[in-house]
Amino acid sequence: MAECLYSRTKTIQEDKVSGFCPGCMHSTVMKLIGEVIDEMGIIDRTAAVLGIGCCGLQMDYMAYDNITSPHGRACAVATGMKRANPDTLYFTYQGDGDLASIGLAETVSAANRGENFTVIFINNGIYGMTGGQLAPTTLFGMKASTAPKGRIAEEHGYPMHVCETLNQLTAPQYLVRTSCNTPQNVMKTKQAIRKAFEYQLAGKGFSLVEIVTSCPTNWGLDSLKALDFLEENMLKEYPLGVVRDKG
Amino acid sequence: METNLCVAGFGGQGVMTLGKFLASATCDSTDKNVTFFPSYGAEQRGGTANCYVVISDEMIGAPLGDVMDDLIVMNGPSLNKFLGTLKPGGRLFINSSIVKDKIERTDIDIISAPVTELALEMGNAKVLNVIMLGVYVGYTEVVAPEIVWGTVEHKLGSKPKLLPLNKAAFDKGLEIGRAARK
Amino acid sequence: MARTFMKGSEAVAEAAVRAGCRFFAGYPITPQNEVPEYFSRRLPEVGGVFVQGESEVASINMVYGAASTGVRSMTSSSSPGIALKSEGISYCAAARIPIVYTNFARGGPGVGSIQPAQMDYFEATKAAGNGGFQMIVLAPSTVQEAVDLTVKAFELADRDRNPVHILADGVIATMMEPVELPDMMPEEKVKEIRESKRKWACVGHELDYKNRAWIEPGHWLTSKQQECNEEAAAMYEEWKKKDVMVEEYMVSDADIVLTAYGISGRIAKSAVELLRKKGIKAGLIRPITLNPFPVEAFEKLDYSKVKAILDVEMSIPAQYATDVEAVVRRRCPVEKCLCSGGNIMSREAVIDAVMKIAGQEA
After folding, report:
1. pLDDT tens digits, residue range A158-213?
2. What is the pLDDT of residues B72-93, one digit of tens each?
3. In terms of CATH architecture, what is C247-358?
4. C65 close contact with A: CB closer than 8 A
5. Which chain A residues have a beta carbon less than 8 Å from that of C25?
6. CATH match of B2-181 with 3.40.50.2300
7. ipTM higher than 0.90?
8. Is C95 in the A-facing interface, judged by CB distances under 8 Å?
9. Chain B, nearest residue to C267 by Cα
10. A80, A106, A109 member nearest C63 (Cβ)
11. CB of C99 within 8 A of CB of C63?
């Protein structure tokens, strides 16, 4: 008798295929979000606030309610939604340009108010959809289409550490950095998302899960080399672990 | 029948409150049209403050006009700024404790009251605006004095301790205003 | 009903609450600070939510979010702040989210002056954000009208699932006038309105891909985008047929027709009264909706009798006048009586301008 060992999360539409590049970790993270929603049985009271860029590509094949926010404004949009309708679980899904550049004020202000929603922050150190421009999280030595010599401290400043920056604030409940480079880290990411969602349902306030990911296309590497680059460079700059957990 | 009034003075002299008391009383107890319009600047404190009250039997166009029927000035700079807007035959109410300038115009009625000194004599410098309100209402009777007092009483409802002082201040003003009319 | 003596900004906020508004986000800017201040006290009393956003940009996006959950939501600002909100306004229009927002306009451009002006006419009626969308634009001339139009704005916004814009000015915001407030909407009705939006509201739905809420301020498919634009354009055409509001005052026998909106409209109206007393046949066309524009009021004028139309407007250069000129089509001269920079229109200046057209000394 056949035994079902794995089936795709119901939160991803059966007949849909994701539009992400090979080796991109967006699809992994979305699968994890879908699984957490399935396991918690909360699809009927969950909605996503999508950032601009590749983050928005999921709107066509994830089954949860979603709204697209203007570039950088996801945390403001989510503030309005959660305050007006506290019974629904809201999470934003944002990249580094969206969250830490154009939307830095909205991110920091929502965190400082301790807004009771969850931020899923995809940090791949580069702008994806627009074609590899310099992001606040771009590493030294990483070439970008608007920084042909790579990040230069005198000109661009330093890679921004979002979890550590938000850790200066009193209000946030949970700040954690994970990755999806190994099966173990994928599981840790899933646990972090679940914990953040549970904290929200318990009314504990602002939580942010930063997921360090690769962007093979804009890094100019194949999937495996991108993984090596992530482990050798990204994770050195952005060490994994819990930055804050108020419990 | 339309009456345009401009009230002007230092910030902190209760100029806005004076105007609001008068306008609210008109709204509460008559069916006349009335507007109150504060002139606002960028500063929170200091400088001159002024407001406009228009009371009319007809519809009111602008809540402030180019030409004033009545002008209340609580300090020197306000006199210089607004005297030119007072129409011939208009009525000028002056806080003579502070405004010492000689008024060159002879085509207007001038009603003087040393409201800063009177307020200090009554033991609270802040009631100078209520004295001046009394002077204005006593002289013009644009709204019945008891109606105006009723509004002041209502607005001070949360601070009943202040009522006797304000009543005395209002009555003092009324007396000066009425005496000036004769 | 009893008259209450209220400041325009507070009266608008109270009217909104009574019309079922339960969410407001805003950011301080003179001359409309009493709007957020009032909501911050009032909304918690009725189970509503007030948020002071970290910026105008954040505030409009909070309203975009709140309205997307089905709650009647509003924001307010003044000219430079409205410009910042254009991003979120365009998103609301694109995604067809009903919101109401008020501009208590001040002098411009740039930081301009903080005093009242009518410098944002083009922005309000032609390009309130990117993408060529339109809104019904309401222009109150008294505090009472501001109250009535606020209630109307929420109804229109929900009817069309589209933003509605109230274009007021610093005078309406700061002046006090007697008003009759509408009755408080019963709580059951507030809930009913919210419930009626549940199908599209972004609040979570049972697992069913086709029935999930999908708030889309744009489309990957160009064909879908065009379809949405065509749908919106058809709605704008409908407004022209059914939503025009205009006050026509002593126009039928007028040989000089004044035209003005908002605060200039009431000043022009009082000028008409005084001109009539002088024996001048003046009249007034005062649009209450700036969009849709009251074309018919100008179409039905007898241009063989009307000597001139006088645009009375607190904007230099004139903006509203260009729409007037477009409908008058040179059938008579369109003269202008203008002020700007935060100066309030003088009734005497309006009267002088009319007397000049009439060929008489003031």
Report:
1. 999 999 999 999 999 999 999 999 999 999 999 999 999 999 999 999 999 999 99
2. 999 999 999 999 999 999 999 9
3. 3-Layer(aba) Sandwich (3.40)
4. yes
5. 79-80
6. no
7. yes
8. yes
9. B61
10. A80
11. yes
